[in-house]
TrEMBL record:
Alphabetized UniProt keyword annotations: Electron transport, Transport
Superkingdom of origin: Bacteria
Gene Ontology BP terms: fatty acid beta-oxidation using acyl-CoA dehydrogenase
Entry protein name: Electron transfer flavoprotein alpha subunit
Key word Transport present: yes
Molecular-function GO terms, alphabetical: electron transfer activity; flavin adenine dinucleotide binding
Entry's family note: Belongs to the ETF alpha-subunit/FixB family.
Residues in Electron transfer flavoprotein alpha/beta-subunit N-terminal domain copies: 62-212
Electron transfer flavoprotein alpha subunit C-terminal domain span: 255-331
Amino acid sequence: MNTLKRIDPRRPFTITAEGLKRITLGMTADVAGSLEVVASASGAAHRDQVKARRTTAAPQRVLLVAAHADRGALDDHARQTLAGAALIADTLTEVVLLVFGEFTGDAAALGADKLIELPMFDRRSFAPVDELNALAACVAAYAPVHVFLPDNATGDGDLGRRYAAAANASVATHVVEIDATHVASYVHANTAFAARSLPDVVLLAPNAVEPKLPFVGAGERVVWRFDGASSGAGGRESTVRDLGIEEIDAAQLALEEADFIVSAGNGVSDVPAFERLAATLGAAIGASRVAVDDGKFTRDKQIGATGKTVEASVYIAFCISGAVQHLQGIKDCRHVIAVNLDASAPIAKRANLTVIADAQETIAALNEAAAAARNARGTGAALLNSSAVAEGALA
């Protein structure tokens, strides 16, 4: 016979600075108001539990993970790659993270024992030979048994292949399965599965590893200087000349490539004002299915499961309630800001910031603020970098 008592989901609770705290079974609501320990002991202990260090032993081997940072952080794919290395590392193995670009995140929480940051390599610059030399120099300094990189199209995958070719190292690409002894990938148009022993260079496919770890790394920041003259990659001078980034009108950019998007629902009645705001902020224009069906926007602007799937750093939604199809289309956006009169709209649960206000008034106020900012600067330039402004609002 089951003697366990059913836990009443509606049992008394109190709101504290840390959030909702359930009252331990058997206590009364009168006591709850004066005690902060009213939460279930096991539940509070679980929430406040500090993760243990993966290892404290003196390292004898090294696994090196290299990835590019974007605005001081690693994307999901890079975090998955780092987690993959940490999960297969034993107690005598150290995980070293080499970041190309500025990194302001918590390397220990991501599983790294050592962090090497190379802020001179920014995503806005193109220096493939210098990056190859830096990776080769780091390999020479730490002698890792394996090197891990995300297999993406934004620089890491290319860097991993360049390094494997220059160092004559064994390599596995598009890895979808990994453990301490082997890797595996799909071959023949995903009709077959190929496995091999762990190679020198592992290029991990996206979503092959769960990035949430049950432990933390040491997270030690290492001061490591790179002078750009490493001979580990052949000592070649760069034959690549960076012509810089050519700015284009955000309206000409495909939504899938846009880093900043403002999106309108059917409740946005003043479309010209909305388009002026997008132009001022330098943002691409998106729309909900209802707004497109109503003829306010063309079909190529539709975002959602039946439209475009976007990965913007900042996504501002005006008058979009957040149907499941639309939320599917913005699931990979970094920061979502919702402007809606309905605080209980589904998009509010997804949004990092929800503004409970009338969309037309908000658009008008933002246009006025943009005009004031331009006048204050004394130039006709656009507002400050819009992604930075929006991210600052979220901070």
